[in-house]
């Protein structure tokens, strides 16, 4: 059976593939079928053969999955397609997304490519596929090529029994343990005396408590939801979810832990809670990572997405002596800009989104929540040994008085992106005419600067809406700024401006 290209293209989601993989949610029909996973795998095999210049039979491809309910069935079809093409196929079973990339790096594995079956933090009925080469995650253009290739293939019926098995997570955990030991002087149990709790949200991140922290001497009593369960019965495994952050905060306080760590489903994002129960905010996580890296990369450039606060810029530039470059949202966007900066001779050690996606140049530009946790743990251990607190790293980081995001829907426009771009152009013209300052350069949308704060209006990466982020240094300032932005949007009848009345 050949799946039409137009059907496959609906699964394109930025730099990966995502769709509805099982029934159970009203008005969400299954479109990421097992057949679709099979032919998409063939599309990736063809793509990778062209990229590497190797014959298909000489390719080595690893496959992993997170805890989602549909992971087993989708992986079965991926393995069938790979073995049908004669690819050297390695089944890594439960894994994290960063570990799947590292399968192309570790000398014991040396994969040409890998496939991770995950939909990150999306609901239980969703799933997806992420693809890696030795150069990292594929780009959006590569996804389009893979799906175009896939539309030419029938479902392949290979022999899954030909797939090799490998405990990638043990190898990956060894890699993380080694990093921590080396950074803390080489002791076998460098985290002894530290109490750290982990919340894996029933995703794939439970290994960090058992295979990393526990084996380095840390007390992990109170860690929660480590067992993989694709129903996600306790809370969504997402560091941006309020219920998830409340759970790890309570675990820290109840167990009097030194630090709490929380991961998303496939462990490419993380966040943390300090000993006093304070959640590390999105700006604070960026500030902490930058402060940790600053001594090794003085004067370097930190790449973030576009919605970071002015207070973060001031902290990075005045307190740490670094440079701050706000770029487009989307973890691949900030990572690719970090790579471009370094290739151009501008030292940039960190690309990080406010969502918790963070990639370090020293770690293959890989957005790896577990590696960020390693850097944070090392800093926490050093601070404790010196009688200081981890929060001291960002003691001078300010915060806005108010912040809010408005999501303005675009209604009834077939080409919503063109419509949204027209809105942005007009808003910039109207703001200029009114004497409102516009921040330049802006790599995404229009950033308006007001005496008491700022507003960023941009297009959503994938959906027909225009997010408006507003921050103010004064109480009541968000409402004042939002009123002015609403005036700039008058006459655009396809915009749902009712969000300003809520």
UniProtKB/TrEMBL annotation:
The keyword Nucleotide-binding does not apply. Coiled coil: none annotated. Keywords: Isomerase, Magnesium, Metal-binding, Phosphoprotein. CDD domains: PMM_PGM. Residues 13-142, 171-277, 283-396 form the Alpha-D-phosphohexomutase alpha/beta/alpha domain. It comes from the Bacteria. Its cofactor is Mg(2+). One of its GO terms (molecular function) is phosphomannomutase activity. InterPro entries: A-D-PHexomutase_a/b/a-I (IPR005844), A-D-PHexomutase_a/b/a-I/II/III (IPR016055), A-D-PHexomutase_a/b/a-II (IPR005845), A-D-PHexomutase_a/b/a-III (IPR005846), A-D-PHexomutase_C_sf (IPR036900), Alpha-D-phosphohexomutase_SF (IPR005841), Phosphoglucosamine_mutase (IPR050060). One of its GO terms (biological process) is carbohydrate metabolic process. Pfam families: PGM_PMM_I, PGM_PMM_II, PGM_PMM_III. Belongs to the phosphohexose mutase family. PANTHER family: PHOSPHOGLUCOMUTASE (ALPHA-D-GLUCOSE-1,6-BISPHOSPHATE-DEPENDENT) (PTHR42946:SF1), PHOSPHOHEXOSE MUTASE (PTHR42946). This is Phosphomannomutase/phosphoglucomutase. It comes from Selenomonas ruminis. The lineage of its organism: Bacteria, Bacillati, Bacillota, Negativicutes, Selenomonadales.
